[in-house]
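Sharing a chain and its predicted structure for anyone who wants a worked example. Both blocks are below, sequence first, tokens second.
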Amino acid sequence: MDMSTDRAGRAQELKAVNLRVREDTRALIDKAATIQGRSRTDFMIEAARRAAEEAILDQRVIMVDQESYDRFLAALDRAPESNDKLRKLMHTKAPWDQ
């Protein structure tokens, strides 16, 4: 039985996850893993873990009182004040358009 340790150093049993992927996807994953000097498994586990953490963090709920919420909505509705930096940004081509 494979065992791993968690962040607190306790042993945990490793569970298998089987995935079916298209050959081109597998080749892409293998290339990326090789570039990073990692195994396919390590690469996929880290990528999946990162995506899972981001998905959970995106679901955070921020509670505020009505007055704070109204001020927030008012700020979103206000047009930005014109300034040199904003004008420069709006006239700069995106890197992918250059």
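Comments welcome. The longest strand covers residues 3-5.
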